[in-house]
Amino acid sequence: MALRLGDIAPDFTQESTEGPIHFHEWAGDSWVILFSHPKDFTPVCTTELGEVSRLKPEFEKRNTKAIGLSVDPLEDHRAWVGDIQETQGCALNFPLLADADRKVSDLYDMIHPNANDTLTVRSVFIIDPNKKIRLMLTYPASTGRHFDEILRVLDSLQLTDSHKLATPVNWQPGGDCIIVPALSNEEAAKLFPEGWDEQKPYLRLVKQPGK
């Protein structure tokens, strides 16, 4: 059965470049970004793995761990790691799952029957500390993922959880947010005592807390 937003992310145990990963245990109380690659030694994914390694401090600020996946075996991963460091100027600093048996790919529906081949599509999952899937994205093999956008969504999701806020179109951190419609004005007044801009009863804009 296909996964949906709000589902519990399937647990698994799989080998990786950092040893066996028992996924839920490894995730702990962190947010997780799980992203897959069609195969090792592919050009677009090589650039992505370097970028995610560079972004590790940004993920750590957000209590977030990154974990990659490719269906090639561990020995290929270890050879690819050297290429990533050589070409991207940054060593891999997060685990890369070796999903040669496609156990994880199947659990997360990463192999699409109508794709050009049987390799994993380039999927992204954001998973919260309760192990719930909060975002799913699928990219074509030819287009590099935009990890600034993935960070932006992560910031938005964390605002929703911590402050009962949603974010408007083209929102960037520091911009005005939207009080979620489920929150009454009485409840909102306790959370946002400085008030808000009520453009419509369902559209209440407020400054981002802490900004």
Please identify the structural class as seen in this structure: alpha+beta
Q: How many beta strands in the DSSP annotation?
A: 11
**Secondary-structure element order, N to C:** EEHEHHEHEHEEHEEHEE
Ends distance: 42 Å
- Runs in which pLDDT lies below 50 for 5 or more consecutive residues are none
Helix % is 25-40%
Strand order of the largest sheet: 5-4-3-6-7
Per DSSP, the total helix count is: 7
Task: Provide an overview of this structure.
The chain has 211 residues and is an alpha+beta fold. It is 32% helix and 22% strand. The chain contains seven helices and eleven strands. The strands form three sheets. It has a five-stranded mixed sheet. The chain has a four-stranded antiparallel sheet with strand order 8-9-11-10. Strand 1 and strand 2 form a beta hairpin. The chain is elongated. Its EC number is 1.11.1.26. It catalyses: a hydroperoxide + NADH + H(+) = an alcohol + NAD(+) + H2O. This is Alkyl hydroperoxide reductase C. GO terms for molecular function: peroxidase activity. Homodimer; disulfide-linked, upon oxidation. 5 homodimers assemble to form a ring-like decamer.
Key descriptive features of the protein:
single chain, 211 residues, alpha+beta, 5-stranded mixed sheet, 4-stranded antiparallel sheet, 7 helices, redox-active center, AhpC/TSA, antioxidant
